Structure formats: C-alpha cells, structure tokens
Amino acid sequence: MTLLSQVLDFCGVERERLRARWVSSAEAPEFVEEVNSFIDALKTLGPSPLKAKTAKMGVS
Amino acid sequence: MIDMVKEKIEALFKEKKIAGFLGLREQNGQVAPHLFMEGQALEGMCLGDRKIAGDARYPLNKILVTLARQYPEETFGILARGCDERGLYGLFRLNQLDPDKVIAVGIACPGDLALACECKKPFPEALVAGEKIQAGDSIKAGRETLAAMDTLDLDKRFSFWKNQFSKCVKCYGCRDICPMCFCRECSLECEDLVSKGDLPVDIPVFHLTRAMHMADRCVDCGLCDEACPADIPLRLLYKKTAQIMDIEFGFTSGINKDERSPLSMMGPAPKKVAK
Fold first, then answer.
1. A8 has a chain B CB within 8 A of its CB
2. Which of A22, B99, B162, B267 lies at 20 to 30 Å from B132 by C-alpha?
3. CB contact set of A14 (below 8 Å; sequence gap of 6+)
C-alpha cells in the first residue's frame, strides 16, 4: 500500500483513489460506512483521468 | 585490465573450482555472451568495452540462472560489474542461485560510465580488476533525475507517463532482458490482467505491475532502458520504486549479501533508517 500509493502519485494518479481497510465480515456497518465514505471521496475527486483511456481501449 | 581477469579465470580453472566461465566474447566485430570451458584459452574474451567502456552489456546473470537450472551441481564463474553483483545478491536472496555455486570475477567501472549509469555502486565486492570509484556523484545524478520529476504537477506527471506508456509496443523486451525477472509464469501474460493482442497496452496496469514486482528486486542496471525500442524511461519508474523502498524501509536491493526484503517479511514494517 505504502508503495503502490506512492507509485500512483508519481505517475499522476491521486493517492486518494486507492484505499485499503481491514473490515471483519461481522462488521457490516463499518463496511457500509467505509464504502460510502470512499464513494463520497471519489465523487469529490471527479472522474478518473484513466477512464477516457480505458473506455477507448474496449473498441478494437 | 583484461589480463588480470584472464589470469584469475585461468587460476580458477586450474584449481578445478569452476566448470565454466560465463563472460563475453568478441567475434566478427560483435560482442556476445559466451560460456568459456577449460582449455579454450579464453580466446576472444572481452569485457564489453567496444568504443567506450561498458557499451556492450548483457544480462549474464539471466543466462547463469538458466545454466544453473540445467546443471545444479556445477559451479560457474561469471564476469560481474557492480550492477551484475547486485543482481547476483538479489538472486541469492530470491533462491534462484546458490551462492556456493557462483564465483564472481569482478571488474570496476570507470567514472564516466558510473556517472552515465547513475550507478549506486560502480564496483563489485569481488573485485579482480579496475579501480574502485566512489558513487557519490552518480548517486547524486540519480536523485536529481527523480527530483526533477517530483517538481511537476500531478496532471503533468499523469500526461507525461500516459504519453510514455502509450508508446509501448508490448514487446516484453524489458522483461526478457531483465536479469531479475525469473518467474516461470509471468503476471504480464495473465489475460485477466493484461489483454492479449491489443495495443496500446493497458495503461497503467502493464507498466505498473512490472514496477511493483521490481520494487524489491531492481538493481538499477538500466538494461531495460537500453532494450526498450520505444524509449520509455522505464528506469526512472523503477528508480522511484527503489527510492520509496529506501525511504520507507531502508532497503536497497543488492547492496548487502545477507539482505532480506521487507516485502517478504511478516509482521510490523521494518523501522525507517535515518539517512
């Protein structure tokens, strides 16, 4: 994680787009909260700069 | 310099310490790797210095790994520059070579080559010929290259790498020449990760997968950079991962013979080392 987030940053992808958390399978509320907060964070960041690229690549 | 190397190899053969010596040979004006056997008189042997020092380099370590797999009982000698020896240490750590079955015959690189390579340590411990040059200037040059990249904004960095990665023709040259790439099955050929037959490659999956795999292996020899037909600054990317490993974990691949990678340890991360 330490490594990947910094490598992404080096390549110009915001670190905030990568997240890893340990949530037990017995902790449903924590999981929901984590995902919701990640979604909120991503909405603030806007679409990924990689998205346009990958969409184009699907057509061959 | 070459006389000292030859002398050493002949002595090794005489003492029956090695079954063969993996070095370079010049033939018809071309330099290529060659396995010298006893009694061959080391004919045509060279150190890979054609016009300038070190302009004909090969991943000898990679050939040695193949040899060792075929002949696990034999001991081989190998020509090693500083980077090659770092690679050997890495391969010992990763159980790809047995340290008791490899005898390195080391040569030191001259200052201008070290600087051009931004080398971390331009001489091997098993030094046979050449003068030890301290790596101060070349390390500094490497840091400056990285620092120049860090001054760019996030979106500038993104477009820089996107342009670089989209030049890739997926020739797998970087992987094939890499002396630290030894896996029998490669993630870059896993169709779930990398789609087959499509160009441009999956950005940034293809290159970042390799960068992540190289994080605790890359010895910064620069062969990938030389091999890339599209001139993608691969080394810059791996230099960054190596820098992160150094800053976060105090780990540099191939510097110590008894090193262990923090990425293959369980438990809390090793302490950062103040530098």
1. yes
2. B99
3. A8, A45, B154
